[in-house]
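User: Hello, can you help with two protein structures?

Assistant: Certainly.
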Amino acid sequence: MANIDRLTKRVKKMEEWIDENGDGETVSNYNFLLDAYRGADGAAQQGRMEMEMLRNLLTEYLTEKKLMDEWNEFIKEKDNAVQKQQAEEDAVQEEAESSEEASEAPKEEEG
């Protein structure tokens, strides 16, 4: 009997909440957003699992074919190239900023 009373109170609270928050459209919106979140989360989890599977397959393949040392060297070269490119982009950015500062400086009038 106590369970029925408790459930009845909960249903009444839910009905009051629905009355206060509109005609149920708010609840539909919440359900839609919750479903969208769950779908996005599920897709992200599946993507992570697939990436992990691919990573494991690649490692297994490289180990079997005794290519792991070549792979590590390749990654090291790529990393160095990316760092070099980043340094060059930073230098170009600094040059552009310093030339902007020079052009914004007040010019002396000749006279």
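That covers the first. Now for the second protein you mentioned:
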Amino acid sequence: MISQQIVEYLKLTHGLYNTLVMLLFIHQGWLGLKIRQGKGANIPKDFTVIKRHRDRGPALVLMGLMGYMAGNILVYVDKGQIIQFPAHFIIGSSVSFLLIATFFISRRIKGPGSLWRNIHYLTGLSIVCLYLLQVFLGLNILL
């Protein structure tokens, strides 16, 4: 069995990790907005920004899913059940679902007028908003 002191450190580590992931997603969203704004205006494409956004997206999805799984395992080890904090669990599950959905949606984007581009934008925006709420709920659990 894991000592309670180690569990407390793991909780803090989980919170710090997911806060970092949230900040990375905010940056990822900022890159996406920069790409999106360039499409509407007659501004030349910044391929370095596009490449960064495309390259980092799948890694961030994995990081987000790893944080979700780590949180579930941590709560199970600490409390003996997964749904100890229902709101935090539901929002985390929603973020995870949207991460997976966004990954697959991004693969369907073809061309500047693609409907999938708008869906990708909305799911990405939802992820960032839910992450902000998730971190707030997580801080309330920790403190």
